[in-house]
Each structure stands twice: as structure tokens, then as C-alpha cells.
Amino acid sequence: MLRTQRLVLRPWRDEDLDPFAAMSADADVMRHLLPLNRTGAAAWIERQQAHEREHGFCFWAVEIPGVLPLAGAVGLYTVAPPMPCAPAVEIGWRLARDAWGRGYAGEAARASLDFGFARGIPEIVAFTRPANARSWRLMERLGMTRDPADDFEHPRLPPGDPMRPHILYRLSSRRWRMGHWPSAAGATPAAGV
Hints:
Elements: E1 2-3, E2 8-10, H1 17-24, H2 38-55, E3 59-64, E4 68-79, E5 88-95, H3 104-118, E6 123-128, H4 133-141, E7 145-146, E8 152-153, E9 165-172, H5 173-179, E10 188-189
Antiparallel strand pairs: 1-2, 1-10, 2-3, 3-4, 4-5, 6-9, 7-9, 8-9
């Protein structure tokens, strides 16, 4: 569990399924992602729980204490073949519309980067569709850089699918440390971690 000034990044709970399923069915939230029905949302949460048990991190549930018990998901996840950037660790975020425009994604992402680099991950990547300007602008604010030669066609989507083209950003632990990128305000591991 990670805490920032305003957020808690925590393991998934049973009561997160309903709000996560609603968020995953929201066309605005999922505009650049593949929408999930309730069964798909449950399977996604189960994958996060299994990933955290195996690796010690996942796309955690994001809570805004006293405001939203589930604001979305932010964190780290291992990238495996057939993804062209594999093997790698990815940072990602997905927030409910009620949590947009308040800097929560950046705050949670900085805490996740601090967590990953403090545990010896040498590089963290992020990828999205070119049309997802809000996401890649956040990647740039985090200090991530893009080499167009690394851009790729998502191998799990069929040729010709408009969601297939992806752009890739990278951030090394050295650049994170040397760049003095702002860490999440007050981010600390929760007691016992």
C-alpha cells in the first residue's frame, strides 16, 4: 500500500468490483482502451491480485479517502511477449470521470515510479494510442521520453484495427534520480511495507 498527500494506492477488495465495472463500461473512460463487461472487469481485478502476489506490485486500486472509495487504478505491471517492448515493467493509469482534472493520475504515477525505482527496476515504460493526448502528456510531465522508432502495432489487436497503433515512452531509474522529477507529494509506503 502506498500513500500520497491525497491518495491511497492499495490492494483490490471485493467491494471494488461494482465501481470498477461501472468505470470500465464508461465510454469516456474507455475511449482509448477496450471496454470491459462485468465479467471482464472481475477477471482484470483477479489478474492484478495474482500479479501483486507474484511480483509485489500491480495496477493498484486508487482510493481518495473520504471522497471516493475507488477512483481508478494506477501502478506497475510486467510486460511479456508478444509485446515488442517486453520484457519490461509498465506504468499505467485509468481513473473514473469523477477523478479527472485534479492531478490524481500524476500524483499516483509519481508514487508508483518512486516505488518501482526504489526496488531496483532499471527502466519503466508506458504506452498508449497516439490519440490519447492526455495520457502521453502525463508521460512527458513524468520525464518519460519517446523515440518514434519504438512505436509499435499492438500485437493483440487485429491488423487494421484503429486501436492497434501505439506510441512508447521510457524512463530510466537514472533519469528519474538525475532529473529531480517531482516525487508524489508526501508519498510513503504504508506501515508494515
